[in-house]
Structure formats: structure tokens, C-alpha cells
Amino acid sequence: QVEVVESGGGLVQAGGSLRLACATSGTIFRRNDVGWHRQGPGQERELVADITSDGITNYADSVKGRFTISRDNDKDTVYLQMDSLKPEDTAVYYCNLRENNGPRLGVFDYWGQGTQVTVSS
Prior knowledge:
By secondary structure, this protein is mostly beta strands. 3% of the residues lie in helices and 55% in strands. The radius of gyration is 14 Å and the shape is elongated.
């Protein structure tokens, strides 16, 4: 059974930093792509950053230069380092594991329960 658990959210002042962690189990982690998404109050869920199994990263324009996504395949964990936080970064942050099961079975998506990030002005 695949599990995805986020941690590291909290309350921080504008300009501060937080590091989110996405711990996974029940899957061959190194084969999978992982993304961080967020959903602010009254907003749709949006992609923040993702990282492929090969370590290739992609960022939303709104977080480029401030956020860094990384992975530790030994710990089956993906991190999101968030610096220079702004009030508009306030949201619930979700981790999305995209389990690659090969060409026949395709990709399965798993989501964590989310972690709240609140940035005060």
C-alpha cells in the first residue's frame, strides 16, 4: 500500500523560510516522479514544483528563484525548500507521487493529506 505523508508546514513571517518534506512508502521510490502542489483559499490547486526520477526539476513562475525541490532516494523523501516567502504563498501544500508502473499499466497518482503553510505580512 502506497503512502504519502507531508510535514513541515506552519506559520512564518513574510521573508522567512520553511522546508516541507514528503515521505513515501510502499513503492519503488526512485522510479517515480514527485510534485508539490498547493491550493490557496478560494483557488484551484496548482503545480508548484516537480522532480522526475532522473532529478530534472520544474517550477511555477511564481516560485522560481525562491523554492527548491530535491529528493533523497535513500530516504524515499522529497523536500521543498521555500525561501523569501510571501503572503500569497499561503496555501495547503500537497505532495503528488506519480508511480510509474511501466508502459502496460501506466502511471498511478497518489496524494498526501496536505500541510498548511501560512505566511503573515
